[in-house]
Design goal:
α1 packs across α3 and α1 crosses α4. Strands 3, 4, 5, 6, 9, 10 and 11 form a seven-stranded mixed sheet that branches. A two-stranded antiparallel sheet has the order 1-2. It has a two-stranded parallel ribbon with strand order 7-8. Helices cover about 40% and strands about 25% of the residues. α5 links the parallel β3 and β4. It is an alpha/beta fold. The longest helix is centred in the N-terminal third of the chain and has 28 residues. It has nine helices and eleven strands. Pfam families: HTH_1, LysR_substrate. One of its GO terms (molecular function) is DNA-binding transcription factor activity. This is LysR family transcriptional regulator. Keywords: DNA-binding, Transcription, Transcription regulation.
Length: about 290
């Protein structure tokens, strides 16, 4: 049984007239009659009652028509899904992101992508920069939002956000009422920082800021996520240098201050496998990077 046999059957069932059905199908009437007869032989039951004047569906033909119409609807949906997927407008995209991007670039990017391509399912995973490198290599995520540098030749990368470093102080800190804070004035404070392995670029930028002020920070507490670092600041366990977007994380007991000297800018980069030809990945990059470059 071929798809054209079913198409012939549906057309005849709609017209209930061999001449009109043949005309719609752009074939002669005898071949149509022959194809319908072959279909009935193959099915093992009669589809139509035929007289010289009337063509009617049998009861079995009516039941068969309902099922065949479902098949054609499913086929149409399959074609539509295939076309959307080929254009990157359907399927699934797995995205990794460092926690701080939840307070700056990520929400806006996701809103824009979902508005333009609602058919793609997004799966999000909060991961450190080093975890994203590993997951991207292993194919567990498709896109990553990380802190550079990115020195992996398998990955392509673009900067999508830039921000300054600021200081997070506990509410009762001696400098809490100052408009801005000099890094030099923090040389005797306890610092809260994340291990370098989790984001080497951001870690080094923070350490460099202190070294330019003439001291190496006394790191007494370590935490992986920025939210945890800010919570430890609120608990008066120390102070922290954080990206400025963390100000959007309002936490009782924490005050954010700009840094007076050595203005340091840090970035967020999007990364993906350089040889990834997935239409969904390419559509995401097209939408996001066109916005970034505009």
């Amino acid at each position: 049984m071929e798809l054209r046999h079913l198409r012939y059957f549906v057309t005849l069932a709609e017209e209930l007239h061999f001449g009109r059905a043949a005309e719609r199908l752009h074939i002669a009437q005898p071949p149509l009659s022959q194809q319908i007869r072959q279909l009935e032989d193959e099915l093992g039951f009669q589809l139509f009652h035929r007289t010289k004047r009337v063509v009617q569906l049998t009861e079995a033909g009516e039941a068969f028509l309902l099922e065949v119409q479902k098949i054609f609807k499913q086929l149409e949906q399959a074609v539509q899904t295939g076309r959307q997927t080929s254009r990157g407008e359907a399927g699934q995209l797995v995205i990794g992101f460092v926690s701080s991007t939840a307070y700056n670039v990520l929400p806006e990017i996701l809103r824009k992508f979902r508005a333009e391509v609602p058919g793609v399912k997004l799966e999000l995973h909060e991961l450190t920069t080093d975890e994203q490198w590993r997951h991207l290599r292993e194919g567990k995520i498709d896109i990553g939002f990380v802190r550079p540098p990115i020195e992996e030749p398998l990955f392509a990368t673009e900067t999508v956000y830039k921000e300054l470093l600021i200081v997070a102080l506990p509410e009762g800190h001696r400098l809490a009422k100052e408009t801005s804070v000099s890094i030099k004035s923090l040389s005797n404070d306890d610092f809260i920082l994340f291990p370098r392995t989790f984001s080497p670029g951001l870690h080094d930028a923070m350490i460099s800021l202190c070294q330019q002020a003439g001291f190496y920070p006394n790191v007494t507490q370590e935490a992986i996520q920025m939210q945890t670092i800010v919570s430890l600041v609120a608990a008066q366990m120390g102070i922290a240098i954080v990206p400025s977007s963390l100000q959007h994380l309002q936490r009782t007991g924490v005050i954010y201050k700009p840094i007076e000297e050595f203005v340091t800018e840090v970035t967020i980069n999007i990364i993906w496998r350089r040889n990834d030809t997935s239409p969904t990945v390419q559509k995401f990059l097209e939408i996001i990077l066109s916005k970034t470059h505009s």
